[in-house]
């Protein structure tokens, strides 16, 4: 009997019988969540072509002749909006930019082509014609959000060599201070060329986020000791924007889909980890965008409603809590943006724009 069970024919028969079970269970165990939006090879190749063009143009703009020319002209802030719905607060942002010459800023919008989006069409909007043509589908808990942010950076780098800072925002973001305050803070000579990006370690969920793609998958490029987390929204210097689109090594890991979507927020991991590993000294490790995580649901921050809005709330969320000065070394930097607000907050914000929001 023992000889029969150990014979090659019996083992082969047992393997054949186990195939249906493997086909049933295997995909659930070995494959990422079936609803994950994957990054296709054609999309990846399109992005690489865009990045190469941006890198090449940036290299030419750094030549001595052009560098001298740029020093005589105003440098700009690139405002990059990542959205999968309408830009509800476009009229408020128009008020924010009002009176500022276009020599000080540019606007770029990555709108998910699979989602309904109606670009602002009223007369005089600064958002007119600012949709980037390379936009692709995005999905929460997937690396497609990283891809979208890298496309925004590459497009802004390619579009204007005078773009010196790159501010990532969402359709739920509002400005908290006047434009000139932000411009002065970013281009203060003491802080020039430093990025503002939240970089945290020691967070309770850090390990579960690290292994969201599977045990050991991030090795050897990203050991757990180097893995960081932070806010999705940042302000990067030009050299860090270039660093992001030049990266291939870490991207090979972060582009992989997750098995555990409950711990998968790649856009909150990739940028902090990359800059932590490559140029921490070139960063202020905090965000300039206020977010209220009290009462958050399903990974989304608290959403403010119209009845909560007041000049007192604006004053409160402009400044970080007193104990944050030692935690993230803000060096006196306030918040310049905030999220998350429901679309019907627009009119109350417009009503208090001149008397509160855009007055220091």
From TrEMBL:
<dbReference type="InterPro" id="IPR044174">
    <property type="entry name" value="BC10-like"/>
</dbReference>
<keyword id="KW-0732">Signal</keyword>
<keyword id="KW-0325">Glycoprotein</keyword>
<keyword id="KW-0472">Membrane</keyword>
<dbReference type="Pfam" id="PF02485">
    <property type="entry name" value="Branch"/>
</dbReference>
<feature type="signal peptide">
    <location>
        <begin position="1"/>
        <end position="32"/>
    </location>
</feature>
<dbReference type="GO" id="GO:0016757">
    <property type="term" value="F:glycosyltransferase activity"/>
</dbReference>
<keyword id="KW-0808">Transferase</keyword>
<protein>
    <submittedName>
        <fullName>Uncharacterized protein</fullName>
    </submittedName>
</protein>
<dbReference type="GO" id="GO:0016020">
    <property type="term" value="C:membrane"/>
</dbReference>
<dbReference type="InterPro" id="IPR003406">
    <property type="entry name" value="Glyco_trans_14"/>
</dbReference>
<keyword id="KW-0328">Glycosyltransferase</keyword>
């Amino acid at each position: 009997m023992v000889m029969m069970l150990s014979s090659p024919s019996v083992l082969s028969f047992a393997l054949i019988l186990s195939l249906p079970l493997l086909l049933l269970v295997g995909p659930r165990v070995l494959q990422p969540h079936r609803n994950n939006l994957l990054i296709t090879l054609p999309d990846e190749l399109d992005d690489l072509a865009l990045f190469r063009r941006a890198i090449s143009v940036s290299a030419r703009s750094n030549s001595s002749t052009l560098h001298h020319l740029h020093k005589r002209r105003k440098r700009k802030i690139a405002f990059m909006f990542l959205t999968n719905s309408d830009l509800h607060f476009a009229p408020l942002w128009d008020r924010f930019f009002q009176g500022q010459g276009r020599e000080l800023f540019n606007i770029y919008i990555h709108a998910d082509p699979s989602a309904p989006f109606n670009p602002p069409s009223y007369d005089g909007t600064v958002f007119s014609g600012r949709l980037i043509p390379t936009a692709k589908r995005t999905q929460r808990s997937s690396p497609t959000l990283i891809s979208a942010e890298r496309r925004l950076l590459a497009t802004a780098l390619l579009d204007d060599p005078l773009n010196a800072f790159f501010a990532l925002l969402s359709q739920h973001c509002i400005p908290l201070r006047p434009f000139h305050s932000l411009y002065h803070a970013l281009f203060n000579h003491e802080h020039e060329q430093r990025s503002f990006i939240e970089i945290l370690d020691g967070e309770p969920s850090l390990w579960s986020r690290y292994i969201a793609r599977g045990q050991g998958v991030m090795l050897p490029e990203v050991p757990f000791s180097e893995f960081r987390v932070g806010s999705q929204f940042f302000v990067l210097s030009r050299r860090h924007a270039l660093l992001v689109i030049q990266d291939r090594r870490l991207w090979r890991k972060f582009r992989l889909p997750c098995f555990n979507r409950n711990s998968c927020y790649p856009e909150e991991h990739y940028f902090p980890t990359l800059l932590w590993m490559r140029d921490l000294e070139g960063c202020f490790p905090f965000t300039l965008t206020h977010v209220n995580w009290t009462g958050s649901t399903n990974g989304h921050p608290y959403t403010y409603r119209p009845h909560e809005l007041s000049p007192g709330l604006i004053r409160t969320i402009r400044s970080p809590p007193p104990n944050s000065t030692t935690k993230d070394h803000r060096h006196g930097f306030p918040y310049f943006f905030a999220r998350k607000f429901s679309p019907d907050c627009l009119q109350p914000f417009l009503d208090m724009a001149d008397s509160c929001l855009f007055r220091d």
